[in-house]
Each structure stands twice: as C-alpha cells, then as structure tokens.
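Hi all, posting the design record for the shared folder.

TITLE: backbone redesign
STEP: 1 of 1
STRUCTURE INPUT:
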C-alpha cells in the first residue's frame, strides 16, 4: 500500500498514481543484453523526467521490459508510452548499430501493443467497501 511519502501534490490535486508497463520486442525476438537494458533504463528515466513522471522500478529480459511509473493525473499514459517507445527505439538504433537487424518494417523495434496496469493503494474490495460505507446526503450518521 502506498505510504504518505508517495503522495504528490499538483496545483489542484493530491495524488498517488502508479502504473506497471510492459513493452515487448517485435515478434518477441531476443534482442537485449545487459548493456542494452542499462541504456534503456537511462533513456526511460530521461523521458519520464520530461513528462514530470518518475521511473520507480525497471527490469527486463532479452525480449521484454517492465517499468513501474509514478505519474501525475495530467499525464495520459498512452502518450507517455508512445514517447517512451519512440525515443528508446530511435536512440537505440543510433547508439547500437548491432540492433539494426532486429528493426522490422518501418524500423520498429517494439511490438505495437503494450500492457498497462494500475498498481498500489488498497485492494479494490477495500475501496468498494469504503465507498459503500460513506453516508449519502440526507442520511443520518450511525452513532459510534
């Protein structure tokens, strides 16, 4: 569960938003080695900073990557994902010529799809219960 240290503030809101993102290489080809993963993490951190988001965790294997991103409500995850994938693909193509053979039609390193899941906070069952127990206008508050 998110602690108070995770709470961020915006001009008109207080929030704790985390997303688990998974990117897969085109055709799930085994592309990355340890050095590539290290560089990808640096690239993703830079892109996240541009979006006022934070890359909290990063890990991956030779054909897919996992990112945990802390983001403000003004950021559309789809736009963040598109930027992360595009910038990483472009920079890796420039910096790592050995990856050129893994770029398919239209120079695509990544599969067109991705996974995005919301994470953190209380389980949905607890949130539902909390909301159900809130008093509606006109209802009396139960005595303690």
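Okay, here is what came back for every position:
SEQUENCE:
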């Amino acid at each position: 569960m998110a602690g108070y240290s995770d709470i961020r503030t915006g001009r008109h809101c207080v929030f704790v938003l985390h997303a688990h993102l998974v990117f897969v290489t085109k055709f799930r080809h085994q592309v990355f080695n340890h050095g590539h993963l290290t560089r990808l993490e640096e690239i993703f951190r830079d892109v996240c900073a541009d979006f006022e988001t934070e890359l909290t965790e990063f890990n991956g294997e030779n054909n897919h990557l996992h990112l945990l991103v802390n983001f403000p409500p003004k950021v559309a995850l789809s736009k963040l994902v598109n930027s992360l994938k595009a910038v990483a693909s472009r920079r890796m193509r420039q910096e790592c010529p050995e990856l050129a053979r893994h770029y398919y039609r239209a120079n695509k390193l990544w599969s067109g799809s991705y996974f995005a899941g919301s994470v953190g906070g209380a389980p949905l069952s607890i949130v539902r219960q909390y909301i159900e127990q809130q008093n509606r206008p006109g209802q009396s508050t139960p005595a303690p």
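COMMENT: The domain at 4-132 is CATH 3.30.70.1290 (Alpha-Beta Plaits).
Let me know if anyone wants the other runs.
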